[in-house]
Amino acid sequence: MATNKDKTPRSKKKRVKDAEGRMALKEHLIEARNRLFKSLIALTLGTIAGFFVYDWLLALLIAPVKAAGGSVVFTAVMSPFDIMIKVALFVGLIVSSPVWLYQLWAFIVPGLKKNERRMSYSFVAAAVPLFLGGVAMAYFVLPFALEFFISLSPENSDNLLNISEYLPFIIRLLLAFGLAMLVPVLMVGLNLVGILPAKLILKHWRITVFLIALVAAMAAPGGDAITMFALAGPLFLTFAAATLICHFNDKKRAKKLAAQEAENERLAAGGVATDIDAPSTIDEPKSQL
């Protein structure tokens, strides 16, 4: 007779993974689609919320230009609507960051055990403040960069910045440094699950330093070296801190593994001794008869 288990719909069955948590290509693509769909839902809800704070946020983004002695102008009929959409999307990315950061981590490191799933929440708890901190850091340095560029204008001239060019530049700048601040916590997270050892990080430290300097130079172009170093400095510090955390975690993991191997050898040695002693205990009564 067929049981209730046999009548379970195929669509409700969980996807089967191997012992290491790996999935087939088809299952991997389905996983990516589902996590992308969840991220898009969160982004859509955050974007809707962005329309309600549009006026306040746009004034906040334009404030550094006015403080530097310039002004922002709309040069097309559709510019206000286009700018409203971009600002709302920017708010959506910020507001939905806990969701898409978690989905990104869960996709990169699938098949975690129950005790390892807490690491995912720890990753999000560390990644979200760093992402927002990177955005805030870029906004704090922005007035210095704008003041430098506007100061290059000739005397008796007005600085009228096209909003369609200014706003995308500012949004890219803020997001670039927000994402750059995620690199250290991503390094630590991958190290904790055994994917990225500290030796590999130290082996390629020159490339990492070069990339950090390159990102800082691209986000703060021009001859203002102070702005570039002000942006690159926190990135270097967080990279060094992440490398140290990975190093100590590797030492802790190696020590724990060595202790486990020693315990296994002790148990194996005890088992061999028991097998050797076993015949003597059996033969003893025979010799007395």
TrEMBL record:
It comes from the Bacteria. Keywords: Cell membrane, Membrane, Protein transport, Translocation, Transmembrane, Transmembrane helix, Transport. The chain crosses the membrane at residues 40-63, 83-109, 121-146, 166-193, 205-222, 228-248. It is found in: Cell membrane; Membrane. It is a multi-pass membrane protein. Residues 270-289 are annotated as: Disordered. The Tat system comprises two distinct complexes: a TatABC complex, containing multiple copies of TatA, TatB and TatC subunits, and a separate TatA complex, containing only TatA subunits. Substrates initially bind to the TatABC complex, which probably triggers association of the separate TatA complex to form the active translocon. Part of the twin-arginine translocation (Tat) system that transports large folded proteins containing a characteristic twin-arginine motif in their signal peptide across membranes. Together with TatB, TatC is part of a receptor directly interacting with Tat signal peptides. Belongs to the TatC family. NCBIfam families: tatC. PANTHER family: SEC-INDEPENDENT PROTEIN TRANSLOCASE PROTEIN TATC, SEC-INDEPENDENT PROTEIN TRANSLOCASE PROTEIN TATC, CHLOROPLASTIC-RELATED. This is Sec-independent protein translocase protein TatC. The gene is tatC.
